[in-house]
Structure formats: C-alpha cells, structure tokens
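F.,

This is the one I mentioned.
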C-alpha cells in the first residue's frame, strides 16, 4: 500500500568487487611491483644457473620455482589488497600469532642449512622462514594496539607493543638473525613515532639498541665476524663481499652484457642476498638505478597517499608496512656495496626464495589495501576545521 501511495524506493546497486578494487587501487605502485618481479625473473635467468649446475639440476630449475612462488605471491597480493582495513587487521593478527609460534619452535625443529643461523623449517621439497611472514603481522598488531591506545579508556597499546617487540627481537637474536631483529625494531619505532612518541623516549630506545648491539658483538661470534668483516679496510677477494665488489666494478654504467657476468659463478648467494651485484655486472648502473627508483616510487607514493587517511589504524599500519618494505630493499643493496654489514636479507620480489617473495606479496597486498582511495575527507580538511 505504501508503494502505491508514495511509489517504490529505488534500491542502491552495489558496485562489483573487482571494478571497485580497480578504481580505488594505487595502479602506479602495483605496476612498479609487477616490474620488480619481472626484473627478478630476468636476473634469476643469470644468477641461479650456476647454483643449478652445482646441484646437478636443470639450468632453469630455480627460475621455474621462482615463477611458481611469484605467481602465488601475486595472487596473495591481489587477494589481500581487496580486503578492507578491518579484514587486513584480522589477517595480520592471526598471521602474527601463527608466525610467532613457528618462530618459537625453530630452536627445536629448525635448520640452518649450514649457514650458522637456525632460520628455516625444512620440508625436503621446500623450506619456510617464519620471520619473513612475522614482519607484516607484527606491524599490523603494533598499529592496532597503538591506534586503540588513542581511544578514551583504551589499552596501554604502546607499552604492550613494546613488550611484544622485545620478545620478538629476543627470539630472532637467538637464531641469530640480527638483521630481521633490527628491521622489526625499526618498524615498531616508525609506528611509534607516527603515533606521537616523545623524542626523549625515542633517543632512549636508540641508546638501548646501541647497548644491545655492543652486547651482541661481544657474545655472538656470528655477529662479531660480520661486523669485523665490514669494518676491515681490506676485502678478501674470495669472500662474498669481494666477489660482489668486483662484479659491481666490472659492470660499469651499461654492464658487460646479458649472460656475460663471471662473478655469479663464484658468488655463493648470487641468486639471493647479492643479486643486485649480478644486476650491476651484467646490466650496469642503469638497471640498478631503475630498481632503486621502483622501490622509492612504491614507498614514497604509499606514504603520500597515507597522508590523506583519517583512520589512525590505517595510517599507522600503512606507514609501518611502507617503511619496512623500503628499508629492507635499502639494507640489501647497502650490504652489496659495503655501506652496511652483511645481514642475510633478501631483495623483495627480486631475490630468489619462496618465503621471501610470498611474504613480500602479502606485505604489499596489505599496503595496497591501506592506500586504496576511500570516500572520506582528507585529514588536512579536519585539521583546518579545528583551527
């Protein structure tokens, strides 16, 4: 009867999920991610062939595996980027809990593959590194706790997140994996800084970090060996840093040519930690600058889009994810050119490794979800309204 008198009320047609996702996603960042993965496959054609030959496998065995891992990473990236911030928060917290349990079980069931650090679970056909998956979940959990602390009668999120960070860093130091431990602590510091941390407290935390590094140097032979290798003025030409340095020097501006690099045959981790040296030798400074620009574009564009975000959790989580993604790339390339001590850290989407590339896919998927355009006023509009 009501419809006969007043007419029917038009129903709102919901926009399909995929068109809405495509309209709101940061297409430039996603394109840069796909280009990085393509570059990783290109470099894998050169860098992984010596490893396959040493292991008596098909020359492109590792490239094929990386393509499979990368395909799974791209699917994970797209699927996660379609989620709402609330769904990403749930995924991140559950992922952190599972990764932390796996991390705690490493001393019992883990293996070091002869590298002196127990970081992996080996299943024969593949291996898993829990710390790679722990990082994005830790950032999400930290951002959630600190955002909740800003609510009236909210929990002591900053203190709770700091306690969790200390526990995680302790487990990582036991492996030992000081590179990932420092990256986790850095991610916590970024989120804390954006949430409004006092500078005095940040200075105190930096001081404690320095004391922890000094203690690690005196207590861990693995850590001390890497620091001494970094500080020495002479580079052993038969070490990884020696081979990487020679590869970069030989490459020059345009490189020695596709497939013509020689140091990849003697560089043990040419396909993982030192893949940027292979890029520098065969393709020269030009490709290295392209790779740096791609990582910089993803990080800077994400941070810029987050400046317009009103929701505290989304802003904090997105900032933390963008920073650990960019800083991990910076650390990997910094080690290759001897600006930083060796860390055993991969180059996201470029280095070989199933855990690395899939975890990177999840990380940038979360980041793309946080930076999607939403129907909201800019945070600058709110600040101007308050003044």
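My design for it:
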């Amino acid at each position: 009867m009501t419809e006969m008198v007043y007419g029917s009320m038009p129903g709102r047609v919901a926009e399909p999920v995929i068109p809405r996702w495509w309209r709101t996603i940061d297409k430039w960042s996603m394109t840069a991610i796909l280009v990085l993965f393509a570059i990783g496959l290109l470099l894998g054609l050169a860098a992984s062939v010596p490893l396959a030959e040493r292991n008596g496998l098909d020359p492109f065995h590792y490239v094929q595996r990386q393509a499979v891992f990368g395909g799974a990473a791209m699917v994970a990236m797209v699927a996660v980027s379609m989620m709402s911030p609330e769904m990403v928060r749930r995924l991140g917290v559950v992922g952190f809990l599972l990764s932390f349990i796996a991390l705690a079980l490493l001393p019992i069931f883990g293996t070091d593959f002869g590298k002196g650090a127990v970081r992996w679970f080996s299943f024969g056909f593949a291996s898993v590194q829990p710390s790679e998956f722990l990082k994005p979940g830790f950032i999400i959990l930290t951002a959630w706790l600190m955002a909740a602390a800003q609510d009236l009668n909210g929990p002591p999120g900053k203190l709770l997140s700091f306690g969790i960070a200390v526990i995680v860093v302790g487990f990582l130091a036991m492996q030992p994996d000081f590179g990932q431990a420092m990256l986790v602590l850095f991610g916590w510091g970024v989120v804390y800084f954006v949430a409004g941390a006092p500078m005095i407290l940040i200075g105190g935390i930096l001081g404690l970090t320095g004391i922890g590094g000094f203690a690690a140097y005196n207590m861990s032979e693995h850590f001390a060996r890497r620091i001494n290798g970094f500080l020495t003025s002479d580079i052993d030409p038969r070490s990884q840093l020696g081979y990487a340095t020679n590869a970069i020097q030989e490459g020059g501006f345009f490189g020695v040519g596709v497939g013509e690099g020689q140091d990849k045959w003697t560089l043990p981790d040419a396909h993982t930690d030192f893949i940027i040296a292979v890029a520098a030798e065969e393709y020269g400074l030009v490709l290295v600058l392209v790779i740096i620009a791609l990582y910089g574009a993803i990080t800077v564009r994400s941070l810029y889009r987050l400046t317009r975000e009103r929701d505290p959790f989304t802003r904090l989580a997105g900032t933390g994810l963008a920073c650990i993604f960019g800083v991990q790339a910076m650390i990997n390339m910094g080690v290759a050119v001897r600006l930083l001590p060796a860390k055993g850290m991969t180059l996201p989407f470029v280095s070989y490794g199933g855990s690395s590339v899939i975890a990177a896919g999840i990380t940038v998927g979360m980041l793309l979800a946080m930076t999607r355009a939403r129907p909201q006023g800019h945070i600058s509009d709110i600040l101007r309204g308050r003044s």
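The radius of gyration is 23 Å.

Talk soon.
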